[in-house]
Amino acid sequence: MADNQFINNKPVNNQFNHKNYIIRTMTADDVSLAVNWAGKEGWNPGLNDASTFYHADPSGFFVGELDDQIIAVGSAVIYDDQFAFCGLYIVAPEYRGKGYGLALTKHRLAHCGDRNIGIDGVLENVKIYQRIGYVPFYENRRYQFTASAKLFNPIYIKPITNDDLQPIFVYDRQCFPAPRNNFLTHWITQPQAKSLFYTADGKIKGYVVRRRCLEGYKIGPLFADNAEVAQQLLNAVQVDIEGETVLLDVPEINQEAVKIAEQEKMCVVFATARMYQKGLPNIDNNKIFGITTFELG
User: Which residue range forms the structural domain that includes residue 223?
Assistant: First the structure.
C-alpha cells in the first residue's frame, strides 16, 4: 500500500511494530467507532448497537493502537463464570495480515480465561479459527425478506414492558448459555425497537425484538416454544413496517426455523459458522428461531 494512505485522517504506517502496538479496553466512544467500522464493512449495524452492546460488558471491548492510532477492534464479552462470546472483530484494511489482529485475538482469548467461548466466524476463515481452538457446530444463516402486513392473534401477543422483563430473562436463559439481564434490558427497550412476547395460560411462550439498522431492520432474538408461536411473533413484529427490508439470522440446527424462512421465501445473503472452544452449550436450540446478533451471540 502507498505510504500516503490515511485512517481517521491520520497517515498510515505499514511497518509492523510490536513495540508501539498497544491493546487496551475500549471507552464507550471507542465502541461507537467500532460499530461505525462495522457499517463500513457492510455489516449493517443497528442504530443503537454501540450503546446496547456496551451494556453487555463494558470491560469486554478492546482496541489495538499503533502510535496512538486505532487500527483494530474486537470484543470479548464475559457473561458469567462459564461463558463468553467474541465478535466485532475488524482490522483496518491497510494493517491486515501483519499480525496485529492475531495479537488482539490472543488478548481477547486470555481475557476470557477458562470459559467456553463462542464466535460466529465467517465461513472462509473457519480453518483459521480452528487453529486457535474453536470447533464448528452449525451455520447461522442470514435471511433477507421484505416485510408485509400479516395476520397474527393479538390476544396472545403483547408489547414487552418493564414489568415483563424478569419473566423474559427467565425465558431467555433457556436459549442462551448465560444470564444477560443488563444487556437485555437495554436491548429490549432501545429506541426505534419493537419488542413483543407471546403469552398463553399465564406463561411466556416466546419473545422477539426488532431494531432499526442503517438499512432496514434486523430481527433478533426470535425465541419461541414452537414453530407456530415463532410464526405468530414474526408476523406481529413486521406488520407496521410493510415494504421494508428485514434481516433474520437463523440457526440451521433448528430445522423448524429454516422451514419458516423457506416457506416465507426469504433469501440467504450471508452465513457464519457458530463455533465454541469447549463444546456446544446445553441450551434449547429448538426454541431458537433467530439469534440475537452475530457480534454478541
Answer: 142-290
CATH number, domain of 153, equals: 3.40.630.90
Give the rounded percent of residues in the chain with a pLDDT score beyond 90: 94
Q: How far is CA 199 from CA 81, 139, 204, in A?
A: 31, 30, 4
Check if the beta carbon of residue 91 is closer than 8 Å to that of residue 65.
no
C-alpha to C-alpha distance for 146 and 80, rounded to whole angstroms: 37
Model pLDDT for residues 70-111, shown as the tens digit of each residue:
999 999 999 999 999 999 999 999 999 999 999 999 999 999
Q: Would 246 be classed as within a structural domain?
A: yes
Residue with cell 464507550: 28
> In total, how many domains does the chain have?
2
Q: Strand, coil or helix: what is 102?
A: helix
What pTM did the predictor assign?
0.92
Same domain, 203 and 246: yes
Least confident stretch, 12-16, 83-87, 88-92, 238-242: 12-16
